[in-house]
Design brief:
By secondary structure, the chain is mainly alpha-helical. It has helices spanning about 5-10, 20-35, 60-65, 75-85, 95-105; strands at about 40, 115. The protein has a two-stranded parallel ribbon. The model has no long low-confidence stretch (mean pLDDT about 80).
Length: about 120
Amino acid sequence: IDPAFVDRADMKLYLGPPSVAARYGIIASCLGELCRVGVFDQAEAFKPFDEVPLMQQVDFGMLQSIDNGSASDSPRLSMMLHTLASMCAGFSGRTLRKLPFLAHALFLPLGAPGAVPV
């Protein structure tokens, strides 16, 4: 940052990277926005962070194999998002906001339709 700009600031405050709950919220809001504009199809919203079961040593393969026993994928998707948020320690809010879009752009197979189930 330009020293002249910093000199004009009334207060300098270091906030640090977002917490796990904040990372969860940031990524969930970005996925919600991508759903809203039609990039993804998602029937239900993610559960609030404090309602997602905390699981240690969870990987995405195991979460993908979980059968919720209902038509809703919300608990499983929320647990996957919780795992992702835990893995993103140290990421800035700006980087977290880019993740869903970059994942879609980099990992969607060529020729696949734009709207895919999350």
